[in-house]
Amino acid sequence: MNVLFVCLGNICRSPMAESMFRQLVNSAGLADQIKVDSAGTSSEEEGNPPHPGAQKTMRRHHLPVDGLVSRPITSRDFAWADYIICMDNMNLYNLRRIAPAADRNKIHLANEVVPGHEQEEIPDPWYTHRFEDTYQSLAKALPLWLERMQAQL
Questions:
Q1: Based on the number of CB atoms within 10 Å of its own CB, is 5 exposed (0-12), middle (13-18) or buried (19 or more)?
Q2: Is 13 a catalytic residue?
Q3: Which CATH number do you get for residue 53?
Q4: What is the pLDDT of residues 52-61, one digit of tens each?
Q5: Catalytic residue among 37, 77, 88, 124
Q6: Is-catalytic flag, 86?
Q7: What pLDDT is stored for residue 1 in this prediction?
């Protein structure tokens, strides 16, 4: 199973989600069954590492940062991914607009698995500078995504 996390620039939310989810997958002993990656809907930050604020928060939570480099989503990503999990409604709209029709059902809002918060967006720390809030939001949603995926393995 292949999981792709997507935000706008791929320097804050989606690399944080990628690292967090990979850690969850590894802890569950599923690294050979679930592959994880991230991308952005914009190419503006292409080649850049995660935002310094994201790196600081990730390190505080003992999440690896090495190897995370921003890149834009490609047509191959739509074919590769079984789940494309995006962070906000703008990304959801943009992904549905550019996705091949057959792959649109793979696109999900990150919080849609969180009871009572299905329509909420993951806060963008690029604007808020509150990277810990982003981490905490992802920490609620990602274990629920892993549960959903484990049920399909």
A1: buried
A2: yes
A3: 3.40.50.2300
A4: 999 999 999 9
A5: 124
A6: no
A7: 98
